[in-house]
What does this fold into?
Amino acid sequence: MTGLVRPQNLRGFRDLLPEEMLLRNEVVARITRVYQSYGFVPLDTPVLESLPTLLGSGGEEADKQIFVVRENTKPVVAEGEAAPVEVGMRFDLTVPFARIIAQYAPQQIKLPFRRYHVGPVFRADDPQPEQGRFRQFTQLDADIAGSSTVAADAEIVAVMSAAFDSLGLEGSTGYFVRVNNRKLVDAFLAGVGIEDFETARHVLRVLDKADKISPEALRAELGEGRFDVSGDRIRGVGLAGDLIDALLVFVGIGKDTRSETLDALEALLPATDQAQSAVAEVREFLSHLDALGVSEASVQLDPSLARGLAYYTGTVYEATLVGAGVGSVGGGGRYDGLVSRFSDDPVAAVGVSIGIDRLVTGLANLGVEFGTARTTADVVVLVMPKVEPAEATRVAAELRAAGVNTELYVGESVGKVGKQLAYANAQGFRAAVMIGGNEVQDGTVTVKNLQAGAESRAAIADNSEYRAARSAGQMTVPRADLTATVREILGDTLEEKA
RNA sequence: GCCGGGAUAGCUCAGUGGUAGAGCACCUGAUUGUGGAUCAGGAGGCGGGGGUUCGAUACCCCCUCCCGGUACCA
It folds into this structure.
């Protein structure tokens, strides 16, 4: 071991091996296509930002989670020398987007502007990979800047819902999106005399847990507080009992449809201007959702939804995969004040972020598959005994020229057909091409359908019988028919898959 | 961050104050040009550091990582 560096990941960081990457690429490709169908254009920004850009944007909690990077390796700055620029790693894609808008609009970027962005973000919090909590994870965001209309909010919710639809998930049984508007809860709290911002935020945070903890625990946290399983004390909000009752009725009022829920909420709200304007805003938002054809099963109005990030100012959204055990897989909302951190010209904005890592692990937990292979090539060309190795190389080149994804076997088991077929089997190729001494002599090539061969020999238990059936699923054809034969096999196996 | 529990082979786990095993996986071979099963053989490990002890994988402390809760969020 002396001198060896232990191969190990940093806590909360992970490697993505090919099998997972192929699934992940497919998920990203599908969602990206959905984003593009709504007119979002791609954009990328650096992973590093200055600390002033990052700090204070997402609230105290977000500040604590920023990885700070030292720009030069000099540990001490000499007297009179300029201090190095303070740099950190982005914790989301929303803050960089706000910076982009402030920096490029309205010259290089015309408003309203809708963009999507795929990239890694970094949070120095306590990771729990099993639950989909990582220190580096990839977000797939879609945002609209320069629109304060609820039509934009509805577009975001619709594109979010369509993204999950594109993965073959069903609304309500596969996933659901909850939507809310902070102004509703604020109006309710103001009506019962809670004007203090800190208290209101604390109430929101607790209410947000309504679907995660028991009703008793929820009640305790709104009141005197409680102790969790490990004996840790959880501070309560300290509200009076009757007020807690009223709050729980308010956030638990969910009806069958979004508009019925809103009607019920309206009846509980005070007759203030604040409440009326909040209800009117949500009602218009809901009418746009209806116009977009967003189903009641996929998207529900849930007054308990709050979300933690400080920059949200109005509508908020959160997506959950049913039974996946990974928490929320997407979230978003309106953040009209964020661009103002970077510019005197305020720009309204709204957007959504989908967490790819959680989504992919959640899909895996649910057993959802897209038929992605373990290899990017469909065919492997084996290097047979008693033949010039370049012959296999020529065959591979010929297949590639014909547009077939092809791997040439370059391992150590050259000439050992059994070993090479075992490799082909393990990698999941659909077909193997064999050109050995016999084929060269006859001017032929042997093409093996690996799936068909496996199926036809599945039931054989006897060794000699198994060996006798060795050429199952394969055919030897004139060399000129190589690509046609391969295409036929690939077409067959594709049909079987569909 | 905080509270609690863990760490033995690639994986799932057993085990003891006298330096370790199983199943699966992996590698080699069984009429040299055929995937699987079977059979035979093989390789591979007590997370890191310190302490107690004649002796530590085991007991104690620290670190790292993992699991659960909390907080927060994707």
Summary: Chain A has two domains: 18-72+82-197+252-366, 379-497. Residues 205 and 322 of chain A are 22 Å apart (CA to CA). The longest strand of chain A covers residues 113-122.
